[in-house]
Amino acid sequence: MIDEARLEALKFQGDPLADAVITDLVSTGQVDSVNEVLARFRANEQPIPEELPPSVRAYLVATDDVPGWTDLDRVAGAYEFFVDDGVHVASVLSFGAMVNCYAQPRPSRVLALTHRLNQPRRRLSETAQFVLDMMGPEPFGAGGAFIPTIQKTRLIHAAVRYFILRSGTWDVEADGVPVCQQDLLGALLIFSVQVIDGMRRIGISVTEKEAEDYYYVWRVTGALLGIPADAMPESLAEAQELNATLVEASYGPSAEGVELTRNLLDLYEKMVPGRVFDGVVAAMVRQTVDPQVADWMGVPHSRAWARAVRGGVRLMRLLERSEDHSKLAATVLDKAGSLLLGSSVRILTDGQSTTLDIPTDLKEKWIAAGTCPVSPPKGGSTSPTVTRDGA
């Protein structure tokens, strides 16, 4: 396990490769033109655009390869897990992982300083696209689109660091650097370890192999994001231990976290027509996160809806136990997840056709199973690009 001194050092560590690119682009006034080119750079095997500046081209070459220890069979295992349970992964990401991210005061301050407190729809869309690209077939191979997504995400992080550090609003000595490697490691653990825990809390069974493979893909992703390999635990058990000592130990109340959570709840409550079901979204959040975190983040509490959600969890567990032997149970379970995810997608896109780009093979399997939440996308991917304010 990584020691405390190493963890503390990660607070002051940025991403030298990406940071150098942003410094160059800002100093030469090329941010907007590079954004336009990177918006069209989407596939792993797509040639690097010739019109990019040398610093960007060199960065894309340097960050193109997966680590040598990558086991593609384990990556494939995670894909099969996502084919079966991707809708439930997405539900926990939406209702639990985002709130747990907001329970970390330092990252929440970063969001406030980049004017993103009132943009939950954008954050959810970008997170959804990131996970869809990661969990597609061969995400790091010739048919995938995940490596450009990671490369552009690193540039976003570097842009945030650049502008916040020059804003005069951040105390590096006290807080380290914005979007430091410790923050990225914490986010990785929330989106991997805590998602598995959250799925089990809502009644979805996840085997140990599925959990290990899902965490493994995130560990490969973390290396590509620039997180030092020695900072990421090799096994899920070690990752769970680090999650408890690093991430959960950092949770606490903050004005920014409360506002972020309120905006998220407001967004998801729009899924539910009328006022009859007011409170169900908050109850679902409370089912997937620690009660103290829910209290710190100001998540409303309703005894009636809490009982209803707990009843739903018991039903989910009953269906899970029956799924292997009952086609009806499997259908009900998958349809429930699909309807929830489909409603989320409609909220993210204001009821319009979604621009989320679901990998073709994954989409075909979800369609065949009757669980695909969206129709085939029209237009381009929503993969993020760098903006002037780092947002």
TrEMBL record:
Residues 117-317 form the ER-bound oxygenase mpaB/mpaB'/Rubber oxygenase catalytic domain. Pfam families: MPAB_Lcp_cat. Residues 380-391 have a biased composition (Polar residues). Coiled coil: none annotated. GO terms for molecular function: oxidoreductase activity. It comes from the Bacteria. Residues 371-391 are annotated as: Disordered. PANTHER family: ER-BOUND OXYGENASE MPAB_MPAB'_RUBBER OXYGENASE CATALYTIC DOMAIN-CONTAINING PROTEIN (PTHR37539:SF1), SECRETED PROTEIN-RELATED (PTHR37539). This is ER-bound oxygenase mpaB/mpaB'/Rubber oxygenase catalytic domain-containing protein.
